[in-house]
Amino acid sequence: MNREKWEKGLRMVSNPGRRAALVDAGVEVLAREGARGLTFRAVDAEAGVPVGTASNYFTDRGDLLRQIDTRLHVRLAPDPDVVAGLMTRPKDRSLVRAFMDDLMARATRDRTGYLALMELRLEATRRPELLASYTKSVRGDLEEAMEFHRAAGLPGGDESVAVLYLAMLGLLLEHLTLPGVLEGVLPGVSVPEGLVEKIVATVLPEG
Taking a C-beta distance cutoff of 8 angstroms, is the pair 102, 86 a contact? Predict the structure, then answer.
């Protein structure tokens, strides 16, 4: 009987579809309840699976948080077909604007995912092991963006990419959490589209 239970548990843990569903359930819980609400029981309930299922897939909450981080970087990544289509356009400031528009559109479509990323940032300040892995993944994203910008021949250099990153991060934070802060702050400038244009124009002025 013990062997049967062990074999059943092994089959469960090796089920990638179930693992992905549990991680996505974890994203929902994290975005809605914050890190304190991210329990295995809450993930099981969100995923609609029997109590105890998540504990068969993750060693502890730290493991779950790391897997959520990995999942979100895949889930929120640019669509390769969209990128390929944009790259057929002239490599000028308008193309940079188009990439920033795509970033904002992805954030708006998957607001839950981006809120979960923000919760991960906060939790990383409390968990040294998560801080190390999360810093590495986010820094990797920034360096990848710089490399893409250089390879694509887009205007501006690494400094421009870094400033765009910081400005867009701030815009995403306000737009997804306290959108009323930005409404009407610049008369005649729409939120978020007009603010994206202001960011790009400020970082990459004409000429």
Answer: yes
